[in-house]
Amino acid sequence: MFYALTQGVLDIGGLEIEHVLRDIETLNQAAFVGTYEITALSFHAYAHLADSYVLMPSGASFGDGYGPVVVANHPLEPEQLTGRVVAIPGELTTAHLVLQLWLPGVKTRITPFDEILGAVAGGEVDAG
Question: Are 84 and 106 in contact (CB under 8 A)?
């Protein structure tokens, strides 16, 4: 979503932009201390930060058929996840909020986003 900014396609009138690539939980935590003026942010975290940030009209990173999604080593019905451990990318991520609303009895373990698939494949968690 920031291709035009990061590749110099747009004339930004002398503004300086530092493009920082981090996982969403790291960006959520940075937002709580005001590290960045503009940042990606989970909707869950935004609910706690609405007085500090304004939503942009584009850039959402979830949707029908896109995510958040639950993955496992084998097919599981939603009710089979109750009581099992599901890796989440962070406490205030949209994925965690949606999972809590969908299946309140699920146990969770915070796992960095880029390590979730490996944790599922390795049997460290039941799903992610």
Answer: yes
